[in-house]
Design goal:
Distance between the termini: 15 Å
Protein name: NADH:ubiquinone oxidoreductase
Helix content: over 70%
Radius of gyration: 16 Å
Number of strands: 0
Shape: elongated
Number of domains: 1
Organism: Companilactobacillus crustorum
Pfam families: DUF3923
Oligomer: single chain
Largest sheet: none
Strand content: under 5%
InterPro entries: DUF3923
Keywords: Membrane, Transmembrane, Transmembrane helix
Length: 70
Amino acid sequence: MKTWRIINVIWLLLFLVAIFWIMVRKTDGTGLVQTPQLRMVTLLILGIFLVLVIGCQLLALYLIKKHKEK
């Protein structure tokens, strides 16, 4: 369970760094200037990925707790 929590903290730090990077960069990887609309789209995509990761983490938590009950 301790390892699972450490992994979650690492995920949180990765997402915070990604959000910071998206908000401060002037151009993206293709050279496009970042407008507020493009930043919002990028954050939306990151948010969808975050929901997927949270779902997997909740499934892992359920399986860990179910395994401990045995």
